[in-house]
Design a protein that fits this description.
The chain is an alpha/beta fold and 215 residues long. It is 45% helix and 12% strand. α3 packs across α4. The chain starts with a strand and ends with a helix.
C-alpha cells in the first residue's frame, strides 16, 4: 500500500534541467573544460560534486579547483532559478490532490539543500512537503539508493510503501534500488527510450497521475 509520494526535484518539480545544462556548459567551458550538452545529459541525476569530479578525472584540469568550480555552478543555478524558475505543468494540482488524499509528501534530490530551498521558496510550495532531503550528505548520489532510503526514514515509512517520481534513468535506479515503486516522467525527446520501461508507470505530465488514477 502506497503511503508516501517522494518527488525528485530537477525536471519533476521545476523545469530546471535546461538550467543545469546552461550552467555546466558555461562554467566548465569558461575554464577550458569541454563540457557538451550530450555529456550533461549522460550525467543527469548525479550530484554536482560527482559531475565535477568525473570531469576532473577525465580532463585533469588545473585552471580551477573542483570545490570552487562546483560553487560557481551552484551560484549560476541559484541565479537562473530566481530569474526564470517555473513549476512543472500540473505540479500544484498534483500536490493539492495528494494532500487531499492524505499521502505523505517528500522530496529527494541530488541537488544541494541551498538549491532545494531556492526552488521550494521560488515556487511557494514549502508547506506541501513533510521532508526535504539532499543527497549532498549521503555517501553517494543517485543511482545509489541512499537519498531515497534516508527520505523514507525521515517520514517513518518503509520504502516498499513509497512511490518515487523521477525524470532521469539514474534517479529511477536509485528509487528502485531503495525498494520503492516508481513513476517515470522522461523528457519528450527521450520518452520512448526503452530504459525507462523499468518504471512501474511512465507518464508524459504530472496531471496524468490524477487522470489515470495512478494514486
Amino acid at each position: 500500500m502506497i503511503k508516501a509520494v517522494i518527488f525528485d526535484m530537477d525536471g519533476v518539480i521545476i523545469d530546471s534541467e535546461p538550467f543545469w545544462e546552461e550552467a555546466e556548459i558555461e562554467i566548465f567551458n569558461k575554464y577550458g573544460v569541454p563540457m557538451t550538452l550530450e555529456m550533461c545529459q549522460d550525467m543527469k541525476g548525479r550530484k554536482i560534486d560527482e559531475v565535477v569530479q568525473l570531469m576532473h578525472d577525465k580532463f585533469q584540469f588545473t585552471s580551477i579547483d573542483t570545490k570552487s568550480l562546483t560553487a560557481e555552478i551552484i551560484a549560476k543555478m541559484q541565479a537562473l532559478i530566481s530569474e526564470r524558475g517555473t513549476a512543472m505543468s500540473g505540479l500544484i494540482d498534483l500536490l493539492e490532490y495528494l494532500t487531499e488524499k492524505k499521502y505523505r509528501i517528500a522530496l529527494a534530490s541530488s541537488s544541494k539543500m541551498e538549491l532545494i530551498t531556492a526552488v521550494t521558496q521560488k515556487l511557494k510550495i514549502e508547506s506541501y512537503f513533510e521532508a526535504l532531503h539532499s543527497a549532498e550528505h549521503e555517501p553517494a548520489g543517485k543511482p545509489e539508493p541512499y537519498v531515497y532510503l534516508s527520505t523514507a526514514k525521515a517520514l517513518g515509512i518503509a520504502p516498499k510503501n513509497c512511490i518515487a517520481i523521477e525524470d532521469s534513468y539514474l534517479g529511477l535506479l536509485s528509487a528502485k534500488n531503495a525498494g520503492m515503486k516508481t513513476i517515470a516522467i522522461p523528457e519528450k525527446n527521450i520518452f520512448e527510450d526503452e530504459k525507462f520501461n523499468i518504471a512501474d508507470y511512465k507518464i508524459k505530465n504530472l496531471k496524468e497521475i490524477i487522470d489515470l488514477k495512478i494514486l
